[in-house]
Amino acid sequence: MRDATEYLVQIKARIIAHSQVKRWEVVREEAQGDIGLLRYRLMLHNGDLLEMFERFRIVQGRLQVDKYSFHLQDSNGKLRKRWDNAAHHPEVATRPHHVHEGREEIVKGHTAITSEEVLSEIALEMEHDSK
Q1: Over the stretch 29-50, which tens digit does the pLDDT of each residue have?
Q2: For residues 100-114, average pLDDT
Q3: Domain region containing 85
Q4: What are residue 72's DSSP bridge partners?
Q5: Contacts of 2 (CB under 8 A, 6+ apart)
Q6: Is 57 helix (H, G, I), strand (E, B) or coil?
Q7: What is the mean pLDDT of residues 72-98?
Q8: Is 73 left (phi over 0), alpha (psi -120 to 50) or beta?
Q9: What is the mean predicted confidence (pLDDT) over 56-82?
């Protein structure tokens, strides 16, 4: 990957091709050489909403994510999952990386995650839910 613009193009292509995305919008997007950020809002076919935020840089052709938050909620606004790396849960062994599952108070350790990985995980979960 050459730069931030190329990464943004790649993510948008992934969103467009994603089987669970009904519609999406760019809330904010920046690319300045190797540094960039994205903030996208995706409406899924089942009515869920995914808010994506990722601040990143491209170093020697590889993605490095500095800050992220991926918030998935159901059609009633109830939290399903939020992956983020805010350093406010010192009790989590994977700090700052963690996931809120079902409720704000339910916090579990999680490895660092990227936009592409979240999109893949959502596709798998939705596929599993439909069976």
Answers
A1: 999 999 999 999 999 999 999 9
A2: 92
A3: 4-129
A4: 50, 81
A5: 58, 61
A6: strand
A7: 94
A8: beta
A9: 97
